[in-house]
Design a protein that fits this description.
11 helices, alpha+beta, four-stranded antiparallel β-sheet, binds zinc ion, 350 residues, rod-shaped, five-stranded mixed β-sheet
Length: 350
């Protein structure tokens, strides 16, 4: 982080109540500023740091500025109305830019009961795993500490972007990591070039994906940890299960395709090394076009129990909460929502 990069963002924390005239915003990106209908009662004197002049109105278009320094070191001068207009940050435009830089769905709203906290959107990297993205546009580290404290009392993991990374205290940073949440600054996400143009920092997506790796379930590793990389928003209807061998299942969902063995689905008996009854049941779906029915009444409870266990394991592995094999009243049978089939050579063995 170069000092230059964080300086414009610091204006967000330095200007009282987040408003200032153009001369005060200095090199802050103009695209994020929005004019208010308020006017300043004092503005910076020209060219001298730290020196302010009072705005004195003699008439509607007769406005002069008088230096407030003890020595009145600056000459009084006529002021233009445009010099007095107060500007504030445009939260909406900032949200849009940050959402595009990180890659999340924008959902813009102010959060009540919190100081200067905005929701900018929702990050939905995988299946039903989604995280709110907040932006803190207040002015002090202690305000931010308080917000982090409150948010960390909830269970929801979040990403919070502070006005500048310099506002992030060690305490807040530690509390967020313990909560598995992530705290970064706007200066970690957006860069401002010498011409004042705002661009997304390449490092932004790296920071976020490194964090997501620690919160999302592990993918493509056999054993108890395995999780299918179900894309965001996917439903069971988009899945195709194809048995390419009696103990090999090719699962596809859109562009994603993985080869799964009973172990991936936790359907392998650890003692015998053989597939469990749930795997057998899943395989039998391939021969019945996806339905589970039974002949004798005595079988009912046993089938119901196996069906329930199969559904639970599929929900876990694919990260979806809906029942993949619900009861169909019209068919009087359980029906798979996904397509399930088997290669011809496999069907002959079943
Ligand atoms: Zn002055």
């Amino acid at each position: 982080m170069t000092l230059y990069q964080s300086l414009p963002w610091r204006k967000l924390t330095e200007l009282s109540s987040g408003k200032g005239v153009k001369a005060e915003w200095q090199d802050f990106p103009e695209e994020f500023l929005s004019i208010t209908n308020e006017q300043a009662s004092s503005i910076p004197c020209n060219g001298r740091a730290g020196c302010y002049m009072n705005v004195v109105r003699h008439g509607p278009s007769d406005i002069v500025g008088i230096c407030t320094s003890d020595t009145k070191q600056c000459d009084r001068r006529t002021l233009k109305k445009s010099e007095l207009a107060l500007y504030r940050i445009d939260h909406k435009k900032l949200a849009t830019k940050v959402a595009a830089a990180i890659g999340f769905t924008e959902q813009h709203e102010q959060i009540k009961d919190y100081t200067a906290l905005w929701k900018f959107g929702v990050l939905n990297p995988q299946a039903e795993h989604s995280f709110p993205v907040y932006c803190f546009l207040g002015q002090t580290s202690s305000q931010l500490d308080k917000i982090i404290n409150q948010l960390c009392m909830g269970e929801q993991t979040f990403l919070l972007i502070a006005a500048t990374s310099s506002l992030i205290s060690t305490a807040s940073s530690d509390a967020s990591s313990r909560h598995k949440s992530k705290l970064i600054g706007i200066d970690d996400v957006l860069a401002i070039d010498a011409a004042g143009k705002v661009t997304a920092k390449n490092s932004a997506q790296t920071i976020v994906s490194n964090w997501l790796e620690t919160v999302l379930p592990k993918s493509a590793k056999p054993g108890s940890e395995y999780q299918f990389p179900t894309p965001a928003g996917a439903t069971w209807e988009q899945f195709v299960f194809e048995f390419t061998a009696t103990e090999m299942l090719l699962v596809s969902c859109g562009q994603i395709q993985e080869r799964l063995e009973p172990e991936h689905l936790k359907m392998k008996n650890q003692n015998s090394g053989k597939p469990t009854l749930q795997w057998t049941l899943l395989r039998s779906l391939a021969t019945t076009g996806g339905s589970i029915s039974w002949q004798d009444q005595d079988a009912t409870d046993r089938v119901k129990k196996q069906k329930q266990e199969l559904a639970n394991k599929l929900k876990q592995t694919f990260g979806l909460s809906e029942d993949p094999v619900p009861w169909s009243e019209s068919d009087k049978a359980y029906k798979a929502k996904f397509v399930v089939k088997a290669a011809d050579n496999v069907l002959r063995q079943l």
